Every structure is written in C-alpha cells, then in structure tokens.
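writing this on my phone so excuse typos. first protein, seq and then structure
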Amino acid sequence: MNEAIINSSGNVFVDLGYSPDEAAILQMRADLMADLRRFIKAKKLTQTKAAAILGITQSRVSDLTTGKWEKFSLERLIILATKAGMHVTLKTAA
C-alpha cells in the first residue's frame, strides 16, 4: 500500500492540526524543555542537584527530564532556563 508522503511545515504541532498560535507556544515549550534536559545532562547533574539549581523539587526535575510538557507553562520554562544561566530570546519570522 502506497501512502503519500507529506512534507513537514517545520512545526510538528502545526502538522498535528494545532492552530498556528498554539503550535508556536507548544514548539517553544518543547524547545525549552529539550534545552533544559541538555543542560542537566551536559553538567552531569543529579535530579537533586538540578532541583537545587532550578529552585524546584526533584519530582519536578523528573517531570522535566521525562518530557511531561503539559506540567510546565511557557513562562515557567523561561524562568527555569534563566535559572540555568540560559539567555532566552524570541525569534520572529520576517
């Protein structure tokens, strides 16, 4: 059976049918969570140490590292990224 291959729009959330505004927020949240997971891994932090740096509980670090994106608002992820020493900026399309 041949299935058509559909090119991505560049945002998986748009491809899944979310509105462009909601997809943009979901993509930002996913990107920030990935950046925070990379930070924790690169620094070889335990969940306890990461929790101390980020100012959250160890169980929240577990949620973060296991990708439970629904538990984190975009604003909260920006705060966590800032606590991790990251500079968060918004890119705009021209």
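second protein below, same order as before
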Amino acid sequence: MTYDRLVCANCAAPVSEGRCPVCRASRERLQQESPWSGLNPTALIVLAAVLIAAVALLAHQTA
C-alpha cells in the first residue's frame, strides 16, 4: 500500500505531507516495508504469470 492517498486521522492532511508526528511515523513505517510493496499491481500480475508458466513448463518436461 502506498501512503500518497492516505489521510491522517490526527490532522486530516495527506500522510505523504507529514504535517504532524502521527503522519511522519506512518510515512516512515510504510517506507520501511518490504521491497515487494513498491511493485505496482501490473508488475505483480506479470511476475505471477511468469512463475505459473515456469511451473507448467517444468511439469510438462518431467511428464
């Protein structure tokens, strides 16, 4: 999840602006998540399709 569209419950400003300590803490926590969280959904779908194709190819070769 990206923080560019999140709104802070404390100050009602976008979290990406970091106006209050709660925003800054949330922004920091979201930036420290895994490297996979930065991928967009299209890249994840392509990665899954490649993985499925590789598994199918391996299954076909061993049969």
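The chain has two domains: 1-32, 38-63. thats all i got for now
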